[in-house]
């Protein structure tokens, strides 16, 4: 009887072990790619643009990604450029008209604005400067109208320059093996942490496994000028900064370092100086120069906002009293790295009267 009990106990233990193993395996199916896609999916937008051809209207579709919770969506300029009307389909299926607020032909970037009155899920930028050749990346978009299509690949090369048949050149590009097709244009390229490290822009039609994305560092530089606090809120702060990526991984691996503080500016009056590390601006955590600008969009001249910096390894808070800035229209500064593309390399494919880009 004792022997039987021991055997029964052994069988029961083995059964419990198998059950636990199966449960563990079920959970392990959610790998980093699945987690990253879940993290990003609510920020992906389907862009529909009505354009007029020689004899009729046609619909061009592409992809966009929400980069600010107030409804600002980043996409490619070639997706929305020349459109008579632009609409966006959100992750929840809501379709709404949008306003084009930035068109930057030199870098093939555009920003459209969703209607106000709600908070949208935004996708955070990650740095492109620490990308490694061979690391896994994820592309999400709407190729050929198939919404929310996910493909994976690796970083094949960095800082790629591609000569186009008509003489133009794509520069500062991430080359990946992630499958990109017409309709992916403007969509996000993610790392396995679910961070936005590129904007998918082009494929080589005659090749397989060769796709290109605008790198996030360049994109943020363009956005910080095209959507600066001066242009969005007519305020002046006097801060010039750049991103520094630390070796270790983690949420705080990117630091925003002050390069320069304009003389007689609000930043100078607040006692901020070169080498300070910006941590928070107006209550918002900042991880890149674009974060600094958008933290002040809801401010006005004369507002006193708190800025937290690291100085000598210690946190200190300064009060920044904003001055009146310029109100010029949102046009990207051409001093940013120039990135051009050739529409022939992206491809325009007709499907039942529709086109995808």
Describe this entry's structure for a reader.
This protein is an alpha+beta fold. Among the domains are: 39-113, Trypsin-like serine proteases (Thrombin, subunit H, Beta Barrel); 229-324, PDZ domain (Pdz3 Domain, Roll), CATH 2.30.42.10. 20% of the residues lie in helices and 38% in strands. The protein has eight helices and 23 strands. It has helices spanning 2-28, 32-41, 77-80, 216-226, 229-233, 266-269, 289-294, 343-346, and strands at residues 44-52, 57-68, 72-75, 85-89, 95-97, 99-104, 109-113, 136-141, 149-163, 169-176, 188-190, 196-203, 211-215, 235-236, 239-245, 254-261, 277-281, 284-285, 304-311, 314-321, 323-324, 349-351, 354-356. Strands 1, 2, 3, 4, 5, 6, 7, 22 and 23 form a nine-stranded mixed β-sheet that branches. Strands 8-9-10-13-12-11 form a six-stranded antiparallel barrel. Strands 15, 16, 17, 18, 19 and 20 form a six-stranded antiparallel β-sheet that branches. β11 and β12 form a beta hairpin. The longest helix is centred in the N-terminal third of the chain and has 27 residues, at 2-28. It is globular, with a radius of gyration of 24 Å. The protein starts with a helix and ends with a strand. Residues 328-355 have low confidence and may be disordered.
CATH fold name of the domain at 229-324, please?
Pdz3 Domain
Oligomer: single chain
Tell me what the CATH architecture of the domain at 229-324 is: Roll
Alpha-beta content class? alpha+beta
Low-pLDDT runs:
328-355
Could you name the CATH class of the domain at 229-324? Mainly Beta
Strand segment count: 23
Mean pLDDT: 83
Range of strand content = 35-45%
Rounded to an integer in angstroms, the radius of gyration calculated over CA atoms is 24 Å
Please state the overall shape, judged from the principal axes of the Cα atoms. globular
Number of contiguous helices: 8
From the N-terminal CA to the C-terminal CA, the straight-line distance is: 74 Å
The largest pleated sheet is described as: 9 strands, mixed
Proportion in helices: 10-25%
């Amino acid at each position: 009887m004792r022997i039987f009990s021991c055997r029964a106990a052994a069988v029961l233990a083995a059964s419990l072990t198998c059950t636990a193993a199966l449960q563990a395996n079920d959970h392990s199916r959610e790998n980093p790619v699945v987690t990253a896609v879940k993290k990003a999916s609510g920020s992906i937008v389907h862009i529909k643009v009505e354009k007029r051809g020689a004899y009729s209207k046609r619909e061009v579709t592409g992809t966009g990604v929400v980069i600010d919770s107030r409804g600002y969506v980043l996409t490619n300029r070639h997706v929305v450029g020349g459109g008579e009307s632009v609409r966006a389909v959100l992750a929840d299926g809501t379709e709404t008209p949008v306003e084009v607020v930035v068109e930057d032909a030199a870098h093939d970037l555009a920003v459209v604005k969703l209607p106000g009155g709600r908070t949208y899920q935004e996708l955070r930028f990650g740095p492109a400067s620490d990308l490694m050749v061979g690391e896994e990346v994820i592309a999400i978009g709407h190729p050929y109208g198939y919404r929310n299509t996910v493909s994976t690949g690796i970083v094949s090369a960095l800082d790629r320059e591609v000569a186009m048949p008509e003489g133009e050149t794509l520069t500062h590009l991430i080359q990946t093996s992630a499958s990109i097709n017409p309709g992916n244009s403007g969509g996000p390229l993610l790392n396995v942490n679910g961070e936005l490290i590129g904007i998918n822009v082009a494929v080589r039609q005659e090749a397989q496994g060769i796709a290109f994305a605008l790198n996030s560092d360049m994109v943020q530089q363009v956005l910080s000028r095209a959507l600066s606090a001066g242009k969005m809120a007519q305020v002046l702060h006097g801060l010039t900064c750049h991103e520094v990526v630390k070796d270790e991984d983690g949420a705080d691996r990117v630091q925003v370092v002050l390069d320069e503080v304009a003389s007689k500016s609000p930043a100078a009056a607040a006692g901020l100086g070169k080498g300070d590390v910006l941590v928070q601006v107006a209550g918002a955590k900042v991880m890149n120069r674009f974060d600094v600008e958008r933290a002040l969009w809801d401010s006005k001249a004369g507002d006193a906002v708190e800025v937290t910096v690291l100085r000598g390894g210690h946190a200190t808070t300064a009060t920044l009293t904003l001055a009146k800035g310029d109100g010029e229209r949102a046009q990207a500064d051409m001093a940013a790295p120039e990135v051009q593309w050739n529409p022939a390399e992206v491809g325009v494919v007709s499907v039942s009267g529709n086109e995808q880009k």
